[in-house]
Amino acid sequence: MIEQDANKERLELALEAAGLDLWENDLVTGDVTRKSNKIFLELGYSKEEIASNMDSIFSIVHPDDVPMIKSSINDHLTGSAAQYRCEFRVRSKSGAWVWYANYGKIMDRDGNGSGRRFIGVTFNIDDRKRNEEAFAVRGQIWRTLVENSPDTISRYDRECRCIYVNPTLAALMDGGANALLGKKPSEFPGGRDYITYETKIQEVFKTGRDVEFELNITSRFGKEICNHIRLTAEYDLSGSIVTVMGVGRDISELNIQRQKINEMAFYDSLTGLPNRRLLVDRLLHTQASSERGGLQNALIFIDLDNFKTLNDTLGHDIGDLLLKQTAQRLIACMRQEDTVARMGGDEFVIILENLSANAEEAAFQVEGFGEKILAILNQPYRLEHHDRHVTPSMGIVLFSGNKLSIDELMKRADIAMYQAKKSGRNTIRFFDIDMQAAVESRSSLEESMKHALPQQQFMLFYQPQVNSTGKIVGAEVLLRWQHPIHGMIFPIDFIPAAEETGLIVAIGLQVLQSACRQLKVWEHEPGKDQLHLAVNISARQFQQEDFVELITNVLESADINPARLTLEITESMVLGNISETISKMQVLKEKGIKFAMDDFGTGHSSLSSLKKLPLDQLKIDRSFVHDITENNDAAIIVQTIIVMGNNLGMEVIAEGVETAAQKDFLIQHQCLNFQGDLFGKPMPVEQFDALTKCSPSAKATS
């Protein structure tokens, strides 16, 4: 008996330690015995405050839960339920409601019904119930968010079968949720991309890691949608993956914006062609590919001849239209693996890949392609109401591998293109090493030229101009560069570079100022006070907005007779914008300055354009004069120019006269003014002064 009581005591202590409150109800006598009052102590009550009978206990149970407790007890007592189980709330002394659970069962100690007792335990389940409530709230919130989410949401079981789709996804699919539920993605309507989708789901089940990718789908309305999908594993309480949830967001608009940004970064906005940045990227790829394969490739630079003239005369809108049509024509010539890009302005670049491994054979291939481009770009352009012919100049460099840098490749193609322009334009030139040496020499020359102007290294030479009696009536001012290392440099070697760099404007101004100062000096020397000087004006100078103002200021500063100054211009530089040209010339003509058309006959001006210009003099180009005594065509051209000039009331002067026979021919055909080596080569002013003393006019004066 003592041992049995000890066992009961140990049991009660163990139950109490486990948080269980043991109770016993004698069904025969109706007495209720609570072996532990742990729950009441937890609730803040003392043992004395709670009587050990059922009514006292029910007084602190939540009223809503009392019927349920009694019903559960009754179900067990009547045999409807094998066990008594219920969960209920109890009011603590502070007034808070705390959740508890009762588990109990009828036990018959004697086996004859006289010892039937209702025995059970009470234990605290408040934490669990609170968690369940919070979880239920969170679940409801989650379900609400999922059901109303603009994103597509779906779930998949371990067989990759769809077990849930939210309304957003269902609304997209033809057939709604039924088209997806119970099916694997590979069985979805929509194509091959869904096979990849299923593979991604399997990957998440295998690794537990999230997977992100883009899925292209076609909605029930036919709209193409790009969905960014994120697949996430979902776990049970044991930590096993039970489902995978897929959340998709429509990024179609974002992709459009990305595409626009990409186009802005890598494509020319006017023509839609790749720009320099993308060209460089493709060049690097081509170099790497040919390094492995050993095949030759070609880089082609294309520049449209006289594009600036068209742009200035017809307007930038027409110029842009020309560039667009040129781009379309070039694209039509390309193979799929080739690239055509626009560098800016009127410059286009082509990469030809996978040519022959033999450089000579590759050169023939590229030449044939270049001839095809020449032919297609030489076809007439229809530019709104204008029909125009535009020709290209093309420079080509062959390359294989990455022996040359991108900058060097581009420089060589550019050099070859400029060589094509120098060769008459509308032609093709390949780069060679001698050309590179010439360019490097020119680059050095350009750098030296920057210092030549302030250091007074440019000198004026004077070539006499005489009339039919041999009298020196003036001179053309010609520029020489007295280089400290290379010696005397002639204009043909530095003027083109000065034009391109813009230094010609400052150089031209200095030449004009020096010429005017010399005219001022001659005013005080007998026999020279009537001499005139002809000064060449560059295209860059003439196109300056303040050209007229600059010339006027020079004249006023020198205080000379403007009639003794002749400005020589060329056909190509003034006919681009004929109205502006006439306006500038007319203002200076009113001040007394004269104008001469230099190198006449080599340009493209028409008689109607020529007669509009307020010219005083036509200069027959030396290339015609050279052959007049031997070539009948040259003689006819010169005669025509003389007649035309005289009929228009212009003075005609022939350049490049080297023989007496040429002079006699010119006089015979009424050209009475000459310039050339027959009368004196270009010379320093001291020699010119000495020569004037020997001219017929000087002898007569002396």
How does this structure look, described?
It is a single chain. This protein has 702 residues and is an alpha+beta fold. It folds into four domains: 2-131, Beta-Lactamase, CATH 3.30.450.20; 149-255, 2-Layer Sandwich (Beta-Lactamase), CATH 3.30.450.20; 269-360 and 391-431, Alpha-Beta Plaits; 451-701, EAL domain (TIM Barrel), CATH 3.20.20.450. Helix content is 44%, strand content 24%. The chain is built from 26 helices and 26 strands. It has an eight-stranded mixed barrel, surrounded by five helices. A hairpin with a 5-residue loop joins strand 6 and strand 7. It is rod-shaped and about 165 Å long. The protein starts with a helix and ends with a helix. Mean pLDDT is 84; it is low at 698-702.
Question: Helices and strands in order, then pairings?
Answer:
Elements: H1 2-17, E1 20-26, E2 32-34, H2 38-42, H3 54-58, H4 66-77, E3 84-91, E4 97-108, E5 116-124, H5 126-148, E6 152-156, E7 162-165, H6 167-172, H7 193-207, E8 211-218, E9 224-235, E10 241-250, H8 252-266, H9 276-293, E11 297-304, H10 307-314, H11 316-333, E12 339-344, E13 347-352, H12 359-377, E14 381-383, E15 386-388, E16 392-399, H13 406-422, E17 428-430, H14 433-452, E18 458-467, E19 472-483, E20 487-489, H15 491-501, H16 503-522, E21 532-536, H17 539-543, H18 547-558, E22 565-570, H19 571-574, H20 578-590, E23 594-600, H21 607-612, E24 617-620, H22 622-625, H23 632-647, E25 651-654, H24 660-668, E26 673-675, H25 685-692, H26 696-701
Parallel strand pairs: 16-17, 19-21, 21-22, 22-23, 23-24, 24-25, 25-26
Antiparallel strand pairs: 1-2, 1-5, 3-4, 4-5, 6-7, 6-10, 8-9, 9-10, 11-13, 11-16, 12-13, 14-15, 18-19, 18-26, 19-20
Helix pairs in contact: 10-11, 11-12, 14-15, 15-16, 16-18, 18-20
